[in-house]
Structures are given as structure tokens and as C-alpha cells.
Design brief:
The chain has 4 helices and no strands. The protein is mainly alpha-helical and 90 residues long.
Length: 90
């Protein structure tokens, strides 16, 4: 299985993470997902009256230097870690 296929598999598994997954973890996954699929941030930062989108933008910006393959690999690792912490099989 190639990296892209494994990444897509774990993107589906990420949808099964428990509701009590921290926002911090969700933001890390969001940033890595965007970096893996789109690459560097390509939009301007949302204003302070939109804190949810601003946090997501910041999470994406935080991983901007990673290659798409690196972001996919880190995403897979993070999903595996979160599934194990939740007692679910990776």
C-alpha cells in the first residue's frame, strides 16, 4: 500500500475518533491534512471575530514547512496515536 492510500485510510479512521478527542489534537490533524492535500497555506488569516477558522488556519500554518509526504506520514502517526489512546485499534 502506498503512502497516499494509507493516508486516505487513516483519514477515514480519523472520523471514528471519540468525541472527547481534544481540540488541540483535532487542530493538529486538520493542519496536517490540509498540508498533505493542498500544500502551504493559500488564504489570508481569518479575523479575530472568527476564532474557530483562525485556529484552524493557525494549525495549518504551523506545519507549512512540511512536504506533502511528510505531512501524510505525520498525520497517519497522529491518528494511530489517538486511536491507541482511545483504546481503539489502529
Amino acid at each position: 500500500m502506498g503512502l497516499k492510500e494509507e493516508f486516505e485510510e487513516y483519514a477515514e479512521k480519523a472520523k471514528t475518533l471519540p468525541e472527547n478527542t481534544t481540540n488541540e489534537s483535532k487542530l493538529i490533524l486538520y493542519g496536517l491534512y490540509k498540508q498533505a492535500n493542498i500544500g502551504p497555506v493559500n488564504t489570508s488569516r481569518p479575523g479575530m471575530f472568527n476564532p474557530r477558522d483562525r485556529a484552524k488556519w493557525d494549525a495549518w500554518k504551523a506545519v507549512e514547512g512540511k512536504s506533502k509526504d511528510e505531512a501524510m506520514s505525520d498525520y497517519i502517526t497522529k491518528v494511530k496515536q489517538l486511536l491507541e489512546e482511545a483504546g481503539l485499534s489502529a
